[in-house]
Amino acid sequence: MKKRWKMIGVVCAIAILSAGCKSKESEAPTPSSTQDVPAETAETEYQPEPVETHEGEVRSFYTGEWMDEKKAKNRPVAVMTENTHVTLPQYGIGNADIIYECPVEGGITRLMTIYQDYASLKKVGNVRSCRLYYVYFAKEFEAVYFHAGESKYALDVLNSSFIDNVDGITGKGGAFYYRDNSRRAPHNLYTTGENLASAMKTYGYDTKLPENYTSHYRFTTEDSQNLLDQGEVAKKVSLYYVDAKPWFVYNETDGLYYRYEFGDKQIDGSTGEQLAVKNIILQNCYSNLKDSKNGTLDIDYLSGGSGMYITNGKAVPITWKRASANDITHYYTQDGQEIILNPGKTWVEIVENSRASQNKISAE
Asked: Which domains are assigned to the chain?
């Protein structure tokens, strides 16, 4: 009987010990599936780089940059813009795709700003009068030419069918300009993007480029920049124009040339930002006085000549040719190849041959 009770006691003891062990095992943490896998061999999800397809976009005829394909069909406008100290800052000028600067009388220059995407501009100008040679430069880009009056030598061509234009001084064109009374006349005439568009419709001008229109310039792409490897270093470009004394300084960070004049940065009054462009073309032209009494210049836009192409901190000599008033200007390198611009804005400087040597291109 005693042996039987001893055996029962042993069995009970074993059962209690067994239960305790199972309880401790059940409390032990379960290792995770990656606990013993080295961190550097753990799989990570691959995230591919986003690919820009430029869906709905095309290359601009005027800058070579991507833009909305619908806006790329818009016909541009060319606006005559004053460039004297009393008019600073000009407005909307930073949105221009192309800027022409030409000498006029008295040592001053005047600008022609060419816009394709202009509809949203709130203030453009100030707007001043036409000079004959500007008409032919505007014609090169299929632009509608906006001006406020003109020299007498431009009247015949403006009144012909040669170029679509809107005069802010005479006729119905005045309705599309306004005076800013915070400045004195005649330096206070402005327009807007909305007015530019309305004027084109009112005059019945085509608002779209011809279906067969091709780009005025040839462009590279952002991935294949024209580095002008054989060119001279051009970190600063100073121009001879005696009133504004303008110059450009190259910024290696963004690859743009920043514009200065009258001893300071040239600013767009609409944005407060300094003007900057990717390309500069110096186009040397024959010049003479059409009117010695008033000092009215005549610039030969047709006979061809020399110049410089400047981009990416370098400059190379070029030549230029234009077959007729209805044709465009073509620019060539010394080996006879047409120049290829880098995508971005372009500033064309019309230079009198007799003064070209006074322009300075420097490495500092």
From this structure: 57-362 (3.50.90.10)
